[in-house]
Design brief:
The protein is 41% helix and 16% strand. The chain has nine helices and nine strands. The longest helix has 41 residues. The radius of gyration is 22 Å and the shape is globular. It holds the Pfam family adh_short. Belongs to the short-chain dehydrogenases/reductases (SDR) family. InterPro entries: NAD(P)-bd_dom_sf (IPR036291), Sc_DH/Rdtase_CS (IPR020904), SDR_fam (IPR002347).
Length: 360
């Protein structure tokens, strides 16, 4: 930390931008006239509504997709009134249902001011009592089939969203492939996917195995997409909030946090806005926790009354510096093996593969 950022050849090839400079202000006005899809934005106290509220105030055109029609429609109406922005829309969407998400994207394109989509935020998520942690009734022959709604919403739903985003973002008229050299002041159209993970993406979470699994999956998706989605010209970023004071935190979670601290929605919105409003940020992850004053001692941060006030931290900042060096070396070995085997080896292996496909 604090060292000069020198990307390896692997990082350059992946097109990951340098670590986020938190001292550099972002311009939320850049979001004016951008067309954005946000899943799961119905709850007026949640992250999604926070994104909508701030970005609509900046002049963005937004489509909120949520399963809760009554609450979602009212939230959008309220935000329209608060911001004076009539370009905020609600579409009923169950992210677990493929056709429902297809309809969300189709409707979003219909109301787009420029006929395309600039950004997709995969925000929809659920938590609560999980079947894997329920007391077992050992008097029955076998347990009932568990309800995996958490996986269906938090992971399968996100995969559906990303699959559709990669299709529609490339069709965004006037947009260019993402680049770390992009100048937001001149780049008017974007192709951005923002994933919403969790601190549970990074470490275990007590009594929430399905939630933890789903959020680990979202982080894995992010780490893979940022290494490859630029091929489609799309940049991918992620936010990983700690326990934030929202209706999503169950009573058990609040009891665990008793005497401690939780994060604030406005800090989550701040982190998401920075990643969304700066088109030169590619492949970065931000963790949001309780705001605290800290100072740096070596490679660590410690609490200090005279320190800097922070709530947002970068995660996996050196991921490719550490990991991709191994990957490059391993790939070179594999390529070396292929080179030694030559065309004869390729033909032999190809024939064996075809034979296996025919005869099993």
């Amino acid at each position: 930390m604090g060292d000069t950022y020198t990307p390896t050849s692997g990082v350059k090839g992946i097109k990951q931008s340098p670590p986020v400079d938190f001292t550099k202000p972002y311009d939320v006005a850049w979001l004016k006239d951008k067309h954005i899809i946000i899943t799961g934005g119905a709850s007026p106290e949640g992250f999604g509504a926070g994104f909508v509220r701030k970005w609509a105030a900046a002049g963005a055109s937004i489509v909120v997709g949520d399963i809760n029609t009554k609450v979602g429609d009212q939230t959008v109406r309220d935000i329209r009134k608060e911001t004076g922005n009539e370009k905020v829309h609600f579409v009923q969407c169950d992210v677990r249902d493929w056709l429902s998400q297809v309809n969300l994207f189709r409707e979003a394109v219909k109301v787009s001011p420029h006929g395309g989509i600039d950004c997709v935020v995969a925000n929809a998520g659920v938590a609560g009592i999980e079947p894997l942690q329920m007391p077992a009734n050992l008097d029955v022959p076998e347990p009932k089939k568990p309800n995996f709604k958490v996986i269906e919403v938090n992971l399968i739903g996100v995969l559906y969203t990303v699959h559709l985003a990669l299709f529609w973002l490339q069709k965004n008229p006037g947009s260019k492939s993402c680049s770390i050299n992009t100048d937001p002041s001149t780049n008017k159209r974007d192709r951005h996917i923002l994933l919403v993970g969790s601190l549970a993406s990074i470490g275990p979470i007590i009594s929430q195995p399905l939630y933890g699994t789903s959020k680990h999956g979202v982080l894995g998706l992010f780490r893979t997409l940022r290494a490859s989605s630029f091929i489609d010209g799309c940049r991918t970023n992620i936010i990983c909030p700690y326990f934030i004071e929202t209706p999503m935190v169950p009573t058990a979670g609040r009891l665990i946090l008793a005497g401690g601290a939780s994060g604030r929605v406005e800090d989550v919105v701040d982190a998401a806005t920075r990643l969304t409003a700066d088109s030169s940020i590619l492949g970065r992850g931000l963790c949001i926790g309780p705001k605290a004053r800290v100072k740096q001692e070596g490679d660590d941060f410690v609490l200090s009354e005279n320190g800097e006030e922070k709530a947002i931290w970068e995660i996996y900042a050196d991921d490719f510096v550490d990991t991709e060096i191994f990957t490059q070396r391993f790939i070179r070995i594999l390529n070396g093996i292929a080179s030694v085997k030559g065309w004869y080896g390729f033909g032999r292996d190809a024939f064996a593969a075809i034979k296996y496909g025919i005869f099993g």
